[in-house]
């Protein structure tokens, strides 16, 4: 039993069993591709739900507004009706020699449109309203039937994607102009005055600025600095030679470095250190980012080889006896 003056030592960590070790190893193998697929699926669903679907709904609206022939009963000539009501056959002849039938909502649509939709239901229910019938009709008319249907669905999404890219281009050109910059500045000023929203917006904006902004931070090289205190080494990215006033106060060359945080290396702390107190690391920017994202698990191969060589050089020689 330990005395009060003796520190309590934690019990030794039990090694993982073969089953748990195999499960964790399998999870480590499957998670990266699964997360990659999940991210792309999420991006695809976001684009589809918030861009493609609204564009498709807008195209439906325009087609129904300007192309659909939907009529009310009082729009037909009196000679086509019987005492102001449709004939017993339910078909009303119009002035243009077309025949109209009633939809489920009491509005009238061309019989040819209804028959076309009914012939291509493909195990789906018949639309009830006149607008729904025309939406299904336009969808059937946009694509060829049979083996070419999938091809033209893909063409539709490609067209919508091209329209989306063009809109992004026009938006970018507009925001690059003076009026666009003024408008966007006022919009961001409004966002930054909203509680809670400004916190989320600023965080997302930092990530997008790093990913898409041409004037994003450029790292010169990778160094190690003693941060947050002496004896603790941290991987850092050199961004510049910092400010002249700091250099004059330090009386030697200084460097501005970004101390990244794990596992998001694009956020962190910007500090200025003496150049003599930094250690240049023989690794690339990508290798440093991998090291940070993996929380130190992924060590660059050349650093592992150098460490092994130094370790072997420090070991005492074996006694030949």
Topology:
Layout: H1 18-66, E1 91-93, E2 99-102, E3 108-110, H2 111-119, H3 130-142, H4 149-176, H5 178-192, H6 197-212, E4 221-226, E5 233-240, H7 244-250, E6 254-260, E7 268-274, E8 279-280, H8 285-293, H9 301-314
Antiparallel strand pairs: 1-2, 2-3, 4-5, 4-8, 5-6, 6-7
Helix pairs in contact: 1-4, 2-3, 4-5
What does this structure look like?
With 321 residues, the protein is of the alpha+beta class. Helices cover 50% and strands 12% of the residues. It is built from 9 helices and 8 strands. The strands form 2 sheets. The chain has a 5-stranded antiparallel beta sheet. The chain has a 3-stranded antiparallel beta sheet with strand order 1-2-3. The longest helix is centred in the first third of the chain and has 49 residues, at 18-66. The chain is elongated, with a radius of gyration of 34 Å. The chain starts with 17 loop residues before the first helix and ends in a 7-residue tail after the last helix.
Reported for the largest beta sheet, the result is:
5 strands, antiparallel
List the strand order in the largest sheet. 7-6-5-4-8
Structural class: alpha+beta
Number of strands: 8
As residue ranges, the low-confidence spans are 144-148, 317-321
Tally of helical runs = 9
N- to C-terminal distance: 43 Å
Overall mean pLDDT: 78
Please write the string of helix (H) and strand (E) elements. Answer: HEEEHHHHHEEHEEEHH
């Amino acid at each position: 039993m330990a005395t009060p003056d003796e520190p309590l030592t934690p019990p030794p960590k039990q090694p993982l069993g073969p089953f748990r070790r195999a499960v964790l190893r399998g999870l480590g193998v499957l998670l990266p591709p699964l997360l990659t697929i999940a991210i792309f699926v999420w991006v695809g669903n976001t684009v589809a739900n918030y861009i493609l679907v609204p564009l498709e709904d807008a195209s439906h609206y325009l087609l129904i507004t300007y192309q659909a022939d939907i009529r009310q009963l009082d729009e037909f000539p009196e000679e086509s009706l019987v005492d102001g009501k449709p004939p017993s056959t339910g078909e009303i002849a119009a002035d243009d020699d077309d025949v109209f039938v009633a939809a489920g909502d009491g509005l009238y649509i061309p019989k040819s449109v209804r028959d076309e939709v009914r012939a291509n239901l493909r195990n789906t229910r018949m639309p009830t309203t006149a607008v729904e019938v025309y939406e299904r009709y336009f969808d059937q008319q946009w694509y060829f039937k049979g083996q070419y249907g999938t091809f033209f669905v893909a063409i539709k999404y490609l067209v919508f994607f091209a329209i989306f890219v063009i809109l992004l281009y026009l938006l970018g050109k507009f925001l690059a102009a003076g009026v666009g910059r003024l408008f966007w500045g006022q919009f961001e000023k409004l966002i930054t005055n909203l509680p809670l929203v400004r916190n989320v917006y600023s965080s997302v904006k930092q990530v997008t600025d790093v990913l898409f902004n041409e004037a994003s931070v450029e790292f010169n090289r990778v160094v190690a600095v003693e941060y947050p205190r002496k004896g603790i080494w941290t991987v850092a990215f050199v961004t510049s030679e910092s400010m002249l006033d700091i250099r004059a106060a330090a009386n030697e060359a200084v460097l501005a470095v970004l101390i990244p945080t794990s596992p998001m290396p694009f956020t962190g702390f910007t500090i200025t250190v003496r150049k003599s107190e930094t250690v240049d690391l023989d690794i690339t920017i990508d290798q440093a980012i991998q090291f940070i994202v993996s929380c130190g698990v992924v060590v660059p191969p050349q650093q592992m080889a150098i460490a092994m060589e130094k370790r072997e050089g420090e070991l005492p020689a074996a006694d030949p006896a």
